[in-house]
Amino acid sequence: SCSYQRFVNCYRCFYKLQPQLTRSIYDQFISQLQASIKEEIQEVKNEGNLEGLFSSLDKIVEEAKDREEPAWRPSGIPEEDVRSTMVPYLLKHRSHLRRALRDKEEENRKVAESVLMGRERIAELQQLIQARQQAWQ
Fold first, then answer.
1. How far lies 29's CA from each of 12, 39, 126, 129, 132, in Å?
2. What would the pLDDT profile of 38-97 be if each residue is shown by its tens digit?
3. What is the pTM of this model?
4. Which of 25, 63, 107, 132 is most buried (most C-beta within 10 Å)?
5. Counted domains in the chain
6. Considering the domain boundaries, does residue 120 fall inside one?
7. Could you tell me if residue 60 is inside a domain?
C-alpha cells in the first residue's frame, strides 16, 4: 500500500535490516492508530451526547417527510444565508418600531395640544386678573 511505502521510506535503514519486522511494526502502528481514533470518536460521542442528538435529528427528519415545502438548507454563501434569516426578522422589527414611533408621535401630539390649551387658559386667566385688577383700582 501507499502508506506502507511512505513508512518504509521514513525508516529505510531499519527496513533494509529487517523487512518483516518493519512490516510487523507498521501493522501494529496502524492497528493502534485505528483503535485510538475509534476510541476518540466514541469519547466525543459520549461527551457530546451525540447518540441522543442523532436520534432527535432522525426524529426531525421523519416528521419533516410529510411537509410540502422544503426545509431550510444553507446555500454555502454566508451573506445569502444571513439575509434569508435576518431580513424577515428585521422587517418585523422595523414595523414594530414604526408602530411604536406612531404611537409616541400621537402621544406627543396630544401632550402638545394639552400644553397649548393650558397656555391659552393661562393667558385667559392673566387677562381676567388684569381686568379685575384694573376694575379694583
1. 17, 15, 103, 108, 113
2. 999 888 878 877 778 888 888 887 887 777 777 777 788 888 888 888 899 999 999 999
3. 0.40
4. 25
5. 2
6. yes
7. no
